Amino acid sequence: QVQLVESGGGLVQAGGSLRLSCAASGRTFRINAMGWFRRAPGKEREFLAALRWSDSDTYYRDFVKGRFTISRDNAKSTVYLQMNSLKPEDTAVYYCATSTAVILSGSEARYDSWGPGTQVTVSS
Questions:
Q1: Which tens digit of pLDDT belongs to each residue from 92-116?
Q2: Tens of pLDDT, residues 51-71
Q3: Which of 12, 48, 85, 110 lies at a 20 to 30 A Cα distance from 121?
Q4: Three-class SS of residue 33?
Q5: What angle do CA 114, 3, 98 make, to 5 degrees?
Q6: Residue 78, CB half-sphere, CA atoms under 13 Å: how many?
């Protein structure tokens, strides 16, 4: 089992930035990729970005390209999501997840372990 804990959420004004962190523990050797998702009020959870552990290759949803950046710190088994130019519609609970699959994917079915989420609220 892999345990995940997200942090870094909070309240920010539109146009501001936040950096989310996701620390993994437990059987981290099974992780091939990590991803970020979010669920906005009244909406389904959606994929944002993923990163492959072996070569740091990344995969983004089109609507976050240029604003969000996923990165990692191998030594800390931690993945980050840097979010810039935040908008009120970015308000959501943000989740990280791990995958044993090598191919990067935006499908929730490819992800095995999930964190509890961290709230991000963007005020206008």
A1: 999 999 999 989 999 999 999 999 9
A2: 999 999 999 999 999 999 999
A3: 110
A4: strand
A5: 45
A6: 15
